[in-house]
Amino acid sequence: MSSESFSEWSPPAVGDAIVSSRSLAGFWARVGAHLCDSILMLLITLPFNIVGATLSENADGLMSLLALAVSAGTYAYWIGTKGGSPWRVRLGILILDKNDLSYIGFRRALLRIFVSYISGLALLIGYLWMLFDANNQTWHDKAANTVVVRR
């Protein structure tokens, strides 16, 4: 990993965007980055779930929905503006636009997150799709037109 800090790194300019198979993140690198993301999302949702568990049953469901909205919004912000969560970025596994390797923005990141839930519900086929795709793209990468690269 390079010694440059996260705040100093920016994606290449449009003319510099060349995605080679060497720069695409592989399956296990993506699994590791996803585990880091999951831990951070758990830390974000945990306070909501604790509060919900101490309240009535109706409030518990509401707190769970609120936790889901806050964690998805936070994650979409990270992906859309930084290429991933702080730990993912530290690992150097970034989610970027397939065409110009720029950050994808909040709305496309939300779309990507939504489709990733569907990928998981479909017996993980959407995630495993990358093993057979030339650009290592999952269903949610294809839906949001993204690639996951190593920097």
Describe this structure in words.
The protein has 151 residues and is mainly alpha-helical. It has one domain (22-150). The protein is built from six helices and two strands. The chain has a two-stranded antiparallel ribbon with strand order 1-2. It is elongated, with a radius of gyration of 16 Å. The chain starts with 26 loop residues before the first helix and ends with a strand. Residues 1-6 and 12-17 have low confidence and may be disordered.
Give the topology, please.
Elements: H1 27-54, H2 57-82, H3 86-91, E1 93-97, H4 105-121, H5 125-128, H6 139-144, E2 146-150
Antiparallel strand pairs: 1-2
- Low-pLDDT segments: 1-6, 12-17
What's the rounded overall pLDDT mean?
A: 87
Query: Would you list the SSEs in sequence order as H and E?
Result: HHHEHHHE
- Return Rg in Å: 16 Å
Rounded to the nearest angstrom, the distance between the terminal CA atoms is 8 Å
Spatial order of the strands forming the largest sheet: 1-2
- Helix content, binned percent: 55-70%
Shape: elongated
Tally of DSSP β-strands:
2
Largest sheet: 2 strands, antiparallel
What structural class do the secondary elements suggest?
A: mainly alpha
Indicate how many domains the architecture comprises.
1
What portion of the residues fall into strands of 2 or more residues?
5-15%
Q: Based on the structure, what is the oligomeric state of the protein chains?
A: single chain
**How many DSSP H or I helices?**
6
How would you summarize this macromolecular structure in one to three sentences?
This protein is mainly alpha-helical and 151 residues long.
